[in-house]
Structures are given as structure tokens and as C-alpha cells.
Amino acid sequence: MRDGCQAEVQLPGEPSSVPAARRFVRGVLTDWGQGLLVDDAVLVLSELVTNAVLHGQGEVTARVSVARDGSVQVEVLDHSARLPRMRGYGEESATGRGLRMVADLSDDWGVEPSVDGKRVWARLRPGQGAA
Hints:
- The protein has helices at 17-31, 38-55, 98-105, and strands at 6-11, 60-66, 72-78, 108-114, 117-124.
- It has 131 residues and is of the alpha+beta class.
- It has one domain (6-124): Histidine kinase-like ATPase, C-terminal domain (Heat Shock Protein 90, 2-Layer Sandwich).
- A five-stranded antiparallel β-sheet has the order 1-2-3-5-4.
- Strand 2 (60-66) and strand 3 (72-78) form a beta hairpin.
- The longest helix is centred in the middle third of the chain and has 18 residues, at 38-55.
- It is globular, with a radius of gyration of 14 Å.
- The protein starts with 5 loop residues before the first strand and ends in a 7-residue tail after the last strand.
């Protein structure tokens, strides 16, 4: 395990960035020996990048870090002031489940507005979430 490490990647604000973000977080966490959290982190980051691509503006930054306590944090920064919100959805709805999944898989998550957009983050801990 590599404590205190951080990596990030800049991605275009387009749908092809979602699989690129998945590959990025899977590779980084595997290299850092965080195998227990890889699958959940891939799902969470994928959802956050998807939201940024669909509802944000311009380039997206995906970031992953490991804290001293072994928790993993994934973050997505975009250039839209529009804040995500958890929505209700019907059984037949094709959308609206993403942030609920983020909340279910994460120990904690949140949104921080910034001067040029926002940062959406989620913290995962071993033993937390669906994995």
C-alpha cells in the first residue's frame, strides 16, 4: 500500500473519457496495491466522470489518492457551477441512479463549488460499500 499518493489525469469533456477514467483508476490503484477497492472505485469514478461529461462544461480532471488510513478518494473536477443532486427514480427509469450508487459504495461523498466549477469527491474504505 502506498500512503499519501495522488495521481490525476486530464480528460476531454466527451463520452470517450468515461472508459479512459476507468482504465486510469484501475491502473493506479492496482499499481498502488489497493486491489480490495479497485472495483468500487472504478464504478464510483465512472459515474462521477459520466455526470461531469453529461452536465459539465469542457475538460474534466479525474483524481485518485490514498490516505494514511488506507482509504481511497476519487475526485472529478469540471468547469460547471451546476451541482449534482440525488434524484428519485421510477422502476422503469433509465437514469437517476448514479449518485445513489456513489452514496451506497462510498464511506462519504460530497461536492465543493469552486471559482471555475466544482469538485465532486467520494471516499472509499476497505469493507465499505457493495464489494
